Amino acid sequence: MLTYNLSLAGLSLAGLILRSIFPRTLGLAWATPDFPLLLVVFNAMFRGPLPGAAGGFCIGLAEDLFFGRFIGLNALAKGAVGLLTGFLAKSIYKENMWVPVINVFVGSAFSLGVVFAIGHLAGYRWHFTVVFYQGVFELLFNVCLVPFVYGPFFHFADRRLHLREDNG
Amino acid sequence: MLLAVTATAVVFLLLYLMQNTGWGQSDMVGAGKPLREIAWPIQRAVGIAGGGLADFFGYFRDNKELREENAELRKTLDEAEYWLQQTREIREENRRLGEMLQFKTNHDRVFDLVAARIIGRDTDNWNQTVILDQGSRVGLACDMAVIAPAGMVGRIVAVTPHTAEVLLLIDRESAIGVQVSETRFTPGLVAGSGRDDLLELQRVSNEAEMAAGQTVITSGYGSIFPKGLVVGTIELVEADPNGLTKRATIRPAVDFRRLEEVMVIRAELSGGEAPTGDGASEGGEAPTGGGAPEGGDGDADL
C-alpha cells in the first residue's frame, strides 16, 4: 500500500508538472488536460469513496500548493470528485473501458462545477462563458486521454493493490 | 460523526485559506515556494523537451500550411501569368490591327479592302498557303491580291463561302511582276525560293541596274497585283553561270512566319491617288488597274 501511495504521489507530481508545461498550442481552445484529475478518479475507482476522497484531497492540495494560489480550491474539488467517484464505481466491473470513461466524464464535470462554485464563494469572479467553454474542452481532453492512461494505471493498481486476490 | 465534523472544519479552513491566498496576496504562501523550487529543474527540462516537441509538431503544421500556401500562390501565379500572356497577346494584336487600320485608312480611297484573320496554314512542305476566315460571302474571289501593312502577301487561289486559301509569295508556284523602286527598272518575276524568308528574282538582264538594299515593289503589270506595293528588299545580286543573266535574292517585307492578319484587295477604286507614307506604298505609285505585261513576262498574274 505504501508503494502504491508513494507511486501515486510521484505520478501526481508528474501530472502536475506535465500539466504546467503542456503546450497551450497543443490544447483545445487553450484548455489542457487535467492529468491529476485522472489519477484522482482512477484511484477512487479502485479504492472506494473515503480513500478516494482522501487521495483527491491530497492531490488537489498538492496542486494548490504547487501553484501557490487559492489554497484549498483544488483540494476541495478533487476531494469531492474522489468521494463521488468512489461511490459511483464502488461495485462496477472496472475492466470495462466505458467505466473509467464515464467516471472521468462525470468527475471532470463535477470538478469543474465544484471549482466554479467554490471559487465563486471565495470571491473569484470568473466569466461563466469562458469557464464553460474551457471546461467543455478540458472535459473532452480528459475523456480522450482515458484509453491511453487507464490501461497502464489498471495494471499498476492491479499489481500494487492485489485486486484479484482481494476480489477472490 | 467525528469524520463529518472534521471534514466540515477542513472545508471551512480551506475556504478561509482560499480567500486569503487569492490574487489579493502579494506573494505565494505556504509550501508553494519550496514545492516550486523543487519542481523547477524538472519543469525546465520538460519545458525544453515540450518546446522541442511543439516545434516538432509545429514543423509539420507549418510545412502543411506552407504547402497549401505554396499551392495557392502557384495557382495565383499561373493565373497571373495566363492574364499577362493574354494581355501581351491583346497588346500585340492591338498593334497589328492598329497598323492595319492605319493602312486601310491610308488606302481607303484607293482600295476596297477586307480584313481577314489567318485561321490555318498548309501543313505540308510542298505548298506555302494559308487559310483566311473570310470567303465568298464577303465578296472574296480567286486571284484577289492579299496584302499586309508591311507589303505583299500573295493571292487567293480558292474560296468557300467562309474561307479563302492564299498562295503566299514565298511559294515556288507564286510569281509576281516587280519593279525596282529606286531605278524604276522592271526586271521580271519574283517567285518563292523554297525558303520561307527569301524570294528569288531570276533571269535578269546583265545590264539591269540592281544592287543590294534596293526596294522591290509590284510593277502593276497584270490584273492581280496593284502597282507600288512593297514586295521586299534586294539582299544579294549575283551572276548566273551562263554569264548572260543574273539573279537576285530578295528578303520579303512581310514576315510570313509571324503573319496573323491580312487584308484582301477586293477592288481598286477608280480615281484613287497614290497612298504614301506606309510600307505598302513606298514606291509612291498610284495603283492602277494594271497594264499589259512588259518584256514578254506574259504570266497571267502579272
Describe what you observe in this structure.
The complex is a heterodimer of chains A (168) and B (302). With 168 residues, chain A is mainly alpha-helical. Chain A is 78% helix and 0% strand. Chain A has one domain: Orthogonal Bundle (Arp2/3 complex 21 kDa subunit ARPC3). Chain A has seven helices and no strands. Chain A starts with a helix and ends with a helix. The mean pLDDT of chain A is 79. Chain B is of the alpha+beta class and 302 residues long. Chain B is built from two helices and twelve strands, in the order ααββββββββββββ. In chain B, strands 1-2-5-4-3-12 form a six-stranded antiparallel beta barrel. A six-stranded antiparallel barrel of chain B has the order 6-7-8-11-10-9. Chain B is rod-shaped. The C terminus of chain B is likely disordered. The chains are: A mainly alpha (168), B alpha+beta (302).
CATH top-level class of chain A: Mainly Alpha
Rg result of chain B: 42 Å
Q: What does the largest sheet of chain B look like? A: 6 strands, antiparallel, barrel
What sort of overall outline of chain A do the alpha carbons produce when their principal axes are compared? globular
Q: How many individual domains of chain B?
A: 2
Parts with pLDDT < 50 across at least 5 consecutive residues of chain A: none
* Proportion of residues in extended strands of chain B: 25-35%
- In N-to-C order, the SSE pattern of chain B is HHEEEEEEEEEEEE
Number of strands of chain A: 0
The helix content of chain B, as a percent range, equals 25-40%
Q: What is the domain tally of chain A?
A: 1
Class by alpha and beta content of chain A: mainly alpha
Spans of chain B of at least 5 consecutive residues whose pLDDT stays below 50 are 271-302
- Kindly state the mean pLDDT of chain A as a whole number? 79
Using the coordinates shown, work out and report the CATH topology of chain A: Arp2/3 complex 21 kDa subunit ARPC3
CATH superfamily of the largest domain in chain B: Rod shape-determining protein MreC, domain 1
